[in-house]
Design brief:
With 264 residues, the chain is of the alpha/beta class. The chain folds into two domains: 100 residues, Leucine Dehydrogenase, chain A, domain 1 (Rossmann fold, 3-Layer(aba) Sandwich), CATH 3.40.50; 139 residues, Rossmann fold, CATH 3.40.50.720. The strands form two sheets. Strands 2-1-3-5-6-4 form a six-stranded mixed β-sheet. The protein has a six-stranded parallel β-sheet with strand order 9-8-7-10-11-12, sandwiched between helices. Helix 6 packs parallel to helix 7. The longest helix is centred in the C-terminal third of the chain and has 15 residues. Bound molecules: NADPH dihydro-nicotinamide-adenine-dinucleotide phosphate. The site of NADPH dihydro-nicotinamide-adenine-dinucleotide phosphate has 23 residues, from helix 6 and helix 9.
Length: 264
């Protein structure tokens, strides 16, 4: 990108806080690598200001799109005019396309990014039994994506069991072909074991599942990007399992988000 001009495709990311968010560097490097005349600008937005910020952004005619992250993904879904099927299923939006008539179409690529990241590393969920710890925002995106991409079986384990049961019921209703249920912490009998909780981001966090039951040929996969090797991945590797870190999930999403916004 030589310089920003009146022709540049403007995109923004809304977050609170924003300083730690890595998407601007990754997206702007992606634009540069394609020679695209586009830029992603980080905007720090408090939850109580979200509706008025979105109303203002809607009126900016040269705004191409909005990337959305914590804590706005669910609230902003209610401010969009249209949602993709994926965003409607998950009930959260992580990217918005700004149509030329000012309409906002919300999309959701957390799960697609995770599955694309796995594929990039040579792993597939089609026909496999997947165990997932977590039933929060990221986990919901992953669960629908596993079922959409043909997982044969999905077990969801969560500290708050009712959330795992609710998510399992929603996935079952959308994808009856995937045998989805809530379950305990034991991942035995599954091919792919995923941590989709935030456990492992901070020193001293508990483990998200019963790691003593991890064994080859299970693949252990993680959503957390930092640290790169979480205690869950370290325990899995110690037991001889292949591991897959959280970074490819974001890397794979960058191209998907840029394309959805129409910025490239
Ligand atoms: P949410 O707050 O929506 O969900 C958090 C999840 O972690 C819930 O399942 C919650 O369980 C569980 N959890 C949190 N603390 C504990 C604890 N002390 N003991 C047991 N379980 C716990 O967060 P998100 O889903 O938005 O984010 C989860 C992780 O995903 C984060 O680390 C985030 O950084 C990462 N992420 C990574 C992305 C990537 O591109 N790599 C993209 C998006 C997210 P409960 O329901 O019981 O509270």
């Amino acid at each position: 990108r030589a310089s920003i001009s009146g022709h540049t495709a403007i995109t923004v990311i809304l977050a609170h806080p924003v300083a730690h968010v890595r998407t601007p560097q990754a997206m702007n490097a992606h634009f540069d690598s394609l020679g695209a005349d586009a830029v992603l600008v980080p905007l720090h937005v408090l939850p109580e200001d979200l509706a008025s910020v979105v109303e203002g952004l809607r009126r900016m005619r040269n705004l191409r799109g909005i990337v959305v992250t914590v804590p706005h993904k669910e609230a902003i879904a209610r401010l969009c005019d249209d949602l993709t099927e994926e965003a409607r299923q998950v009930g959260a939006v992580n990217v918005i396309r700004h149509e030329t008539d000012g309409r906002l179409t919300g999309g959701q690529f957390d799960g697609e990014g995770f599955v694309a990241g796995l594929r990039g590393a040579g792993h597939d969920v089609a026909g496999r039994a997947v165990f997932m710890a977590g039933a929060g925002g990221a986990a919901a995106g992953l669960a629908f994506a596993f079922a959409r991409h043909g997982a044969a079986r999905l077990t969801i384990h969560n500290r708050t069991a009712s959330k795992a049961e609710d998510l399992a019921a929603r996935v079952r209703a959308a994808y009856p072909g995937c045998e989805t249920r809530a379950g305990g912490a034991d991942p035995a009998g599954h091919d792919v074991v995923v941590n989709a909780t935030s456990l492992g981001m901070h020193a001293g966090d508990a483990l998200p599942l019963d790691v003593a039951r991890l064994a080859p040929p299970m693949l252990a996969a993680e959503v957390i990007m930092a640290p790169e090797v979480t205690p869950f991945l370290a325990e899995a590797a110690r037991r001889g399992c292949a591991t897959h870190g959280g970074k490819p999930m974001l890397a794979a999403q960058i191209a998907l988000l840029a394309r959805f916004m129409g910025a490239v």
